[in-house]
Amino acid sequence: MSAHCCDHETPNAESIVNLGRYRKILWIALIINAAMFLVEIGAGFQAGSLSLLADAVDFAGDALNYAVSLAVLASALAWRARAAILKAVSMMGFGLYVLGAALWSVWHGEVPQAMTMGAVALLALAANVAVAWMLYAFREGDANMRSVWLCSRNDAIGNVAVFMAALGVFGTGSAWPDLAVASLMAALALHGGWTVLHKARVELGDSKSKGSHLDHAH
């Protein structure tokens, strides 16, 4: 018997209920993140804010992450771990992109519109706090669940930082607060991605080891 077949455990009534609840929350989170991506991408270009554009890309990445999580939710641990690796790589790729964009903006960027930054950041914060609150109970799950929780937590932190950047831009008339926050968001994405990648690789190794033992037993 293959490891893929043997990875499934018999679910009890409580796990089935929790899985159904988690699936509903993921659908809500996906819709919220897709909507906020559209809002922030427009506002980011209109305001000339790198931190808003970075947050918009993050919302798009999270919407994709939730879609992937829904696709593998009932799959074996090995497949959930592989999905988590994909999401970790996307998180780290986002971080590298933002760092590159921040460096480019040091020489070519303009001062963003602080009022637009602040208003959209507050709206995004409300959306991410709602998602993070719904996902809080699942934060200690497998690597796939943890990656979803980390995304929502990092997004909420990022939104607070974007709002503070808006205050900084308004007070100083400089783009530096916007660039600093964009770099901070990149660092969060890189750290979160590395954490998820490490846990997913451990789970993938455990899954292969478990499958190997079961194959020998058969």
Automatic annotation (TrEMBL):
Q: Does the keyword Membrane apply?
A: yes
Please give the Gene Ontology molecular function terms for this protein. monoatomic cation transmembrane transporter activity
Q: How does it sit in the membrane?
A: Multi-pass membrane protein
TM ranges are 25-43, 63-81, 88-107, 113-136, 156-173
Tell me the ranges covered by the Cation efflux protein transmembrane domain, including all copies: 26-204
| Keyword set, alphabetical order | Membrane, Transmembrane, Transmembrane helix
Where is this protein found? Membrane
Leader sequence residues: none
Listed under GO cellular component are: membrane
Checking InterPro entries in the record gives: Cation_efflux_TM (IPR058533), Cation_efflux_TMD_sf (IPR027469)
Query: Which protein, by its recorded name, is this?
Result: Cation transporter
